[in-house]
């Protein structure tokens, strides 16, 4: 039995959201993950919470007021009235307006803020939100399927109680939104391992190290196609060990984007579940309060496999390779196994290349000011504490909408300063977050490498999706009969 207390945030509404036909981001993957977690019985070893939805005011702890207001107002029906804002905030193409978009943001961000609250209060040692990890969202801009940056919001909450927070990103894409938010502070160290070179979002060069007080507190490990488990761990472990030794964070946030797995619809790495999860296992061993978040992942059966397996590691459970019966069993055929095998793609990351970059980054860490401390001025009040009424012992029993409405806002949410940037810096205790882009980004759309390029018209795609769903249901019925 695990001695660590693990909090797990899940809202069963999340899987109903739909970015659009043929869009690779499918919130349904969170429902598949949750269902697998239930059917493996791992949920018994965690405290399960339904996240309180993040309020507008909570979201503006990082995002600009006008951006949040826009996200709340715009719908597929009225979007023609918002052409100017749609362009300004980049809510188009990769980041389309869809039904319930704002609700989706509130659930995703609410879950991650909830994780931070649980960690801050000491009620949990580990907190998980697979609906979070949306690392590309900027202060006033949607990017790479991300609208609100739950990670930045969670880290801001952690900074109320912790001098230093470490952020690690193992998504195949660079964690640009989080890096940018904390680029000029030494209170947050960001470390991202990602594919670099003609790839979304275009940032994350090894030379990008932070600025001002934050110089050397942003680390980037640019990678090439085809990295396998062994090569990945040959850099991840020594670098993270050194970061933990030199930086000594009070809390760690680990973004577990599953698009770095082999066979991902958008990715080009060759990691198996075991290789990916070794990062989780390694960070867990430090016994530092840990938040584990989702992120990318576009071959959804593998995303569910990966996050289920990683949840089991956090609660020290062993899973059988044979998948248990679950609502989405058909997705996992023909093997119906948990683990996946790497493919025979070439690993373009030579030993030499990895070794050189590793030494370069370790050198930077060696010269760091050991565990820097910042004078903490006034600490803003905590966000809502879930333990008052949110714990669901039975994951199927949910708090009713009416009950939820009864909840009163935290007094801190009622402050109404008009000075947006000033307020932010005061409440974060951080220097100004750079609002403009640091570098001229050579941005490639995230879908540029989608092997399943949309070639049909929307109506046809919708029908196709419908047909697939029907087919899946029929298969399921057949299976049940047999
Ligand atoms: Zn990604």
TrEMBL record:
EC number assigned by the record: 3.5.1.98
Catalytic activity: N(6)-acetyl-L-lysyl-[histone] + H2O = L-lysyl-[histone] + acetate
Active site: 136
Gene Ontology MF annotations: histone deacetylase activity, hydrolytic mechanism; metal ion binding
Composition-biased stretches (Basic and acidic residues): 396-410
Region (Disordered): 372-450
Polar residues biased stretches: 427-445
Location(s) in or outside the cell: Nucleus
Name under which the protein is recorded: Histone deacetylase
